[in-house]
Design goal:
Length: about 70
C-alpha cells in the first residue's frame, strides 16, 4: 500500500531532525473512551413504563364505544 503525502512529509521532517508530529498526539487518541454496559433491570422497566403491560385484567378505566347507525 502506498504512503500518503502527509506521511511522507512527516517522515521527511523527522529525517531532517525536526520534531516528530506523531509525538504531539494524545494517548487518548487511540483509546476507545466509550463505556459499554449491559442494561440493568431498571433500564428494562423504564423502557416498558408507558405501555400499560402491568395491567393483567385490563381494568384501567378505559372503554370501547361503537355507534352503529342503521337506516
Amino acid at each position: 500500500m502506498a504512503r500518503s503525502r502527509a506521511k511522507k512529509m512527516r517522515e521527511r521532517s523527522v529525517r531532517e531532525g525536526k520534531r516528530d508530529p506523531e509525538l504531539n498526539r494524545s494517548s487518548f487518541a487511540f483509546a476507545d473512551m466509550r463505556t459499554r454496559t449491559t442494561k440493568t433491570k431498571k433500564d428494562y422497566l423504564y423502557r416498558e413504563k408507558h405501555k400499560n403491560h402491568t395491567l393483567v385484567d385490563r381494568s384501567d378505566g378505559s372503554f370501547y364505544f361503537v355507534a352503529l347507525l342503521s337506516f
